[in-house]
# Entry
Amino acid sequence: MNQQEKEFLSECAGGLGISLSKDQLHLLGIHLDELWQWNQKINLTGLSSKQGIIRELLADSLLPSSLLPESGRLLDIGSGAGFPGIPLKITRPGLEVHLIEANSKKANFLRHVIRTARLTGIEVIRGRIEREHKSLHPEKYHIVTARAFSPLPQCLSLCAPFLRHGGLFVNFQGNRFEKILKEGSGVIEAQELTLQNSIPYKLPGTDTQRQLLIFKKQ
# Structure
């Protein structure tokens, strides 16, 4: 990540109320550069510019960081190219993070980024959440994240069982979130979840309304 890209990431994060240290910028830069390089060979993201990746993936993934505990276990379901799991690990280094990803090439990329950035306390589990129960922590997770994984009702049904009592489920939605919440109301109740936070935001330089949803397991 060159200086101009670092400044753009700092600006995007700052626009979301997030301050990044020099070390955090360095580690996020490794994630960006490796993603950019690997994306020439395998399809990790459809974004065609580094600025797009910084704004749409890195900055967006960072949004929940200030709302999360500094320690505990985090499960990122359908991690893909590492979003939001790797950026959240970088900004919340005390978290023990598990990234679950079904695609073997993407899982290999995640392991490569972890090695290259020398991140510790983070592990990749290759497989589907429906099948990999034995690989997950037996005492469940304090935080579960899912970004562009599946429609909210299905996502809640798959993710909520892995939350501890009092745990947080973090989900990213667009401007139709109210309709989506209504459609998922039955699953929310069945999984003993309550909507703790609903945070509207726009990524810097865009006009699209987005919503960060944080549910709590009762």
In short: Residues 3-217 form a domain with the Rossmann fold fold (CATH 3.40.50.150). The chain has one domain: 3-217. The mean pLDDT is 93.
